[in-house]
Amino acid sequence: MRVWLGTSPPFAGRFHTVSWVVLTGYMGAGKSTVGRAVAEHLDRPFLDSDAVIEHAAALDIPRIFATKGEVWFRRTEERTIRGIVESSPGGVLAIGGGAIENPKTRDLLHRVASVIWLHAEPEQLWERVNGSSRPLATDEAQFLRRYARRERFYRETAHVEIDALLPFENVVTAAVNFASGGSDPGRVE
């Protein structure tokens, strides 16, 4: 594995005091799957912000988008994420791929959590989600435009970037090492 130190400021020792490790990235990057494995390795609780919202609304994400709309979902998402990362004890949190578009969420996460961006090229992610029930994965051109709009937000907010297309165990190991304070922030390939 090669580590490249990015433009994020150095955070030596910071990760031992942060209570939440947050996984972000575009849809299909594996945030929930990787997050569960990281939480298990760290012996910490795991939450998925989408699952928390679904439970509270008693609807799945496609139905939420269809009945309440994306604006309602994004407002609820911001409140949900804020409530989670301001709570104790901490754990591992997977957030929806669009949560990072909210400037309040970006600022909060960058300040109070260890943020991991699971990165992959959008064309590869489209292959993973094409044909799924995800409400924002119905049109490839829109999917690619949405990714282009969000990419800078992932980069700005994350403390580390991990290639989501590495073998699963390598992704999990890199995330666990980072969350445990064993790796400097940057890019892991």
Describe this structure as you would to a colleague.
By secondary structure, the chain is of the alpha/beta class. The protein has one domain (3-133, 154-167, 177-188): Rossmann fold, CATH 3.40.50. It has helices at residues 31-42, 49-57, 61-67, 69-85, 103-112, 122-129, 140-157, 168-179; strands spanning 3-4, 20-24, 46-48, 91-94, 113-119, 160-163, 186-188. A seven-stranded mixed sheet has the order 1-7-6-5-2-4-3, sandwiched between helices. Helix 2 (49-57) packs across helix 4 (69-85). The chain is globular, with a radius of gyration of 16 Å. The termini are close together. Residues 1-17 have low confidence and may be disordered.
Quick structural summary:
It is built from 8 helices and 7 strands. The protein is of the alpha/beta class and 189 residues long. Strand 6, helix 8 and strand 7 form a beta-alpha-beta unit.
Write the layout of secondary structure elements.
Elements: E1 3-4, E2 20-24, H1 31-42, E3 46-48, H2 49-57, H3 61-67, H4 69-85, E4 91-94, H5 103-112, E5 113-119, H6 122-129, H7 140-157, E6 160-163, H8 168-179, E7 186-188
Parallel strand pairs: 2-4, 2-5, 3-4, 5-6, 6-7
Antiparallel strand pairs: 1-7
